[in-house]
Design brief:
This protein is mainly α. The protein has helices at about 5-30, 35-40, 55-60, 70-100, 105-110. It is a multi-pass membrane protein.
Length: about 110
C-alpha cells in the first residue's frame, strides 16, 4: 500500500499527538514531585512556583522504620536470583536444542 505524502504527514501528526497525550501524565508527575503538597493541585502548570526536595527526603528516609536502602537491597536480591535462575534454565534448554534429538526440533530451529 502506497501512502501519499499528506496521509503520511497526518499519520505522523496523529502518532505525535498520541505520544504527547500519553507522556503528559508522567511529565506532570515528575514535575509535581518537586512542588510542595499544597501546590500540586492548586497550581496545575508544569512550572513549579517553588522547588522543594522534601518528597525525596521523605521517600529516602522511609516511613515505619523501612528506608529506601532496605527496599533497594530486597530488589537487588530478587533480581540476582532471577538472573541466575534464567541463565541456568536457558543454558540447559540451549544444550537440549543443540545436542538432543526430539520430534519438533526442525520446527523450533526454523522459527527463530
Amino acid at each position: 500500500m502506497v501512502m501519499s505524502r499528506s496521509s503520511k504527514l497526518l499519520l505522523h501528526v496523529v502518532i505525535l499527538a498520541g505520544c504527547v497525550l500519553m507522556a503528559y501524565p508522567l511529565v506532570w508527575m515528575f514535575v509535581s514531585s518537586f512542588k510542595p503538597n499544597a501546590d500540586i493541585f492548586a497550581n496545575p502548570s508544569l512550572i513549579p512556583r517553588t522547588v522543594t526536595f522534601e518528597h525525596y527526603k521523605t521517600g529516602w528516609a522511609g516511613l515505619s522504620g523501612y528506608t529506601f536502602g532496605t527496599f533497594f537491597v530486597n530488589t537487588f536480591i530478587v533480581v540476582a536470583f532471577s538472573v541466575i535462575g534464567t541463565l541456568l534454565s536457558c543454558s540447559m534448554a540451549a544444550y537440549a536444542f543443540a545436542r538432543l534429538e526430539f520430534a519438533l526440533k526442525r520446527y523450533f530451529s526454523r522459527s527463530c
